Prior knowledge:
This protein is mainly beta and 164 residues long. The chain is built from one helix and eight strands, in the order ββββββββα. The chain has a six-stranded antiparallel barrel with strand order 1-2-7-6-3-8. Strands 4-5 form a two-stranded antiparallel ribbon. It binds S-adenosylmethionine. The site of S-adenosylmethionine has 17 residues, from strand 6.
Amino acid sequence: MTAKLDGGSPRLVHIGVAHTPFSDPRDVEEPQEAEGRLEIYSRYEKALKDVEGFSHLFVIWLFHRSEGCELTCCPTRRSIPPPRGLFATRSPYRVNPLALTVVTLLERNGRFLHVRGVDMADGTPLLDIKPYTDRDRKEGIRCGWLETAGLRARRDSEPSEEGS
Ligand SMILES: C[S@@+](CC[C@H](N)C(=O)[O-])C[C@H]1O[C@@H](n2cnc3c(N)ncnc32)[C@H](O)[C@@H]1O
């Protein structure tokens, strides 16, 4: 397979839609404790087989309510300068408007997943679901500028209110 630099779009389809308490992206709350329902479209329901065995899931979704991208930005709600590189942030204004959230799976009801930890607006298109496994747990992580800005503990043991 030949990779093209700056190559075009891969084929992406919406697999479902998020139902969350946040009608507007600006309403999304920190810390991420809100519950929501992920509706998977019936043609993909078969792909949910065995998902209920996992306590946590990665949800890949579209920042469909943000326009444009900024290669440097002050991403947190407090907009603390100096600007950081986009790829060192979770800013919604990205080259490719892709988002990733780890949620806790509370219950599966057919093609609906009841989850905790949503940070996407109501009606957000979903692109993929993957299991979060022990392989994804990393020890000794560093959180760069988030630590120096006081937005993360120096070790990965303490939750933080922003920057995720
Ligand atoms: C900081 S981003 C992090 C998202 C994801 N956890 C990630 O790391 O890719 C979360 C913010 O995106 C914004 N947001 C939520 N849903 C959105 C949507 N559908 N389109 C654009 N922005 C959205 C909200 O302001 C929310 O606080």
